[in-house]
Amino acid sequence: MRFMNKILALGFLLFLISTNLKGQDTLYLDDAIQIGLKNNFSIIVAQNNLQIATNNSSMGNAGMLPKVDANAAQNNISQDIKRKDSGTTTEYNNKAASMTGALQLNWTLFDGFNMFVLREQNRNLQQMGNLQLRMTIEDATASIIINYYGIALQQKLLKSLKESFVLSKNRLMIAKEKTKIGAGYELQVIQAEIDFQTDSSSILRQENLIKNQMIALNRLLGRNANTSFSIKDIQPSFAKPDYNAIVEGLNSQNAELLYERMNVSNKELSIRSLKTSRMPRIAFVSSYNFSSIGNSTSSPENSRTFGPSVGVTASITLFNGFNLSRNIKNAQLQAQNQRVMLTQTENLLQSNLSQSYNDLELALALIRTEETIMKLATKNVSVALEKYRLGAISDLELRDVQKKMLDAQYRFFSAQLQAKTAEIDLKILAGVLLNEISTDKP
Q1: What's the rounded Cα separation, in Å, for the pair 105 and 117?
Q2: For residue 74, which phi and psi values (nearest 5 degrees)?
Q3: pLDDT tens string 96-113
Q4: Cβ proximity of 132 and 49 under 8 Å
Q5: 2-39+111-280+316-435 to CATH, choices 3.40.50.1100, 1.10.10.10, 1.10.260.40, 1.20.1600.10
Q6: Across-strand partners of 295?
């Protein structure tokens, strides 16, 4: 009996050591998030788009600043002239040079306040770019957290499979001993061997699943898919948030909802911008001009002019084929559509909130229930193995007990991942995920 227990312990130890032969850096959750936020390709694109919107949110882009132009030109003329007058032929070369230059200023003083509308639109676009970046960061962060916990829980399931593997190995050894002394039969050995090999295959599949999930996490982190790392054994913690607090956060802080509201605001500003076209446009214009004409052979006179000019221009569109009215009506319809889309988004987010909250409640209840079942099933395996050794139960009964233990562990780990996923979804909906990112690093 003691000899078999030693073999059991040694075999299990060697199995665990074999999976950790390669040196790997431990990847903590907060480190993974920081790496992902730095390297994630979607975040980089969103940051660039935000910078573009920031660059466009300027007074000059709204037409509030003057426009200054400068131009210059120089012309050289060379002409060979032959003139006949009263039988006398005169030939000479006429050369002339001219140079002109101007500095011009045009400053819109009044355009029906359209420049202020455009400035507000550009500021809205900048805020929308910031919200888009925030949504991208939230999505990337959520994916990293869920993938990270998924790997950690799959590793726990792998550990359970290895324990089951050792149990199957122990059962095979018992079946062989019984057959040797005539207390068993060959069919028991064959069945035990089949279950032993089945458990070995399950371990291989589980190890491959974890490798693929690690590749997926590396992709989220924006690094080489084959970067080696390990994740320490963690115990996820869960907190059930206040429902009313989540609803309040959804209405005031949710990035997607704020983005849609900004869209409605911009559509309404587009209507205001079009209506300003009915107002007159007044601009201040000023220029400084310079002109010089050089002498020529035939007329050695020079002329030079220079000096400033100042003025005001005014213009108004009286009729443009009803195009302005048509554009305003279309803009009003677009604004109406955007308000409908805002309502649709509000209903969708509220629905997602209720569903995620229900999922979290269910998952927390399942965790408590499945944890109890798992403990009982684990205890039942020890009892069943001893009874099998004494011949009190059959192979099928022992295998059934073993399978129930694995099923209970799988359901327990799945409930934990479901709870973590629902918790992350609620934090995104409440707009607090980036403020409440937890860390597992000691």
Answers
A1: 23
A2: -135, 135
A3: 777 889 999 999 999 999
A4: yes
A5: 1.20.1600.10
A6: none
